[in-house]
Amino acid sequence: MMRETPTLRRGKLLNGLMFLAVACVANVAARSEPIKPSQIFVVSGDTIEVFNRRPAVALLGFKAPERRPARAQCAAERALGSRATQRVRELVSGGGLDYQARRCACESGTEGTSRCNLGRTCGILTVNGRDLGQILIDEKLAVPFVCGDTNCPSPPNPWCAAQ
Description:
The chain is of the alpha+beta class. The chain has a single domain (33-151), classed as CATH 2.40.50.90. Helices cover 31% and strands 22% of the residues. It contains 3 helices and 9 strands, in the order H-E-E-E-E-E-H-E-E-E-H-E. The chain has helices at residues 6-30, 75-93, 132-138; strands at 33-35, 40-44, 47-50, 57-59, 61-63, 97-102, 121-127, 130-131, 143-145. Strands 1, 2, 3, 4, 6, 7 and 8 form a 7-stranded mixed beta sheet that branches. A hairpin with a 2-residue loop joins strand 7 and strand 8. The protein is globular and about 40 Å long.
């Protein structure tokens, strides 16, 4: 049996403290925080602005149709995009909100720039414990959309397929 020296004990202690510090930082970064409806401005079905934070936040895990003519690919998408945006406004106004900032799927060093998610940050919004994106998906106002670690596939657009 190897005898533990003071140097070995100090090394184990430092490793333990380092692990604890990393675990605490990871826990803080992943923690949801309650947020008031008055702190959120709904930009679209999958983008919000959280007051006292900049820039806008892309909500993760889903893709909502575009509502602006310059971004929507067809009239059906614009109409559904307006419905999705209105539904998010309804859900937000009801309260029971928690917001969690998340890392965007971008190349290292590009987060917060136009090269990463149009300069938006990323996050998840829950309403009474339910993921907002999943609510929209269940209501056929959005589709699932999951990115990799450093990039996203081309966004789906099932809304214009029939046209």
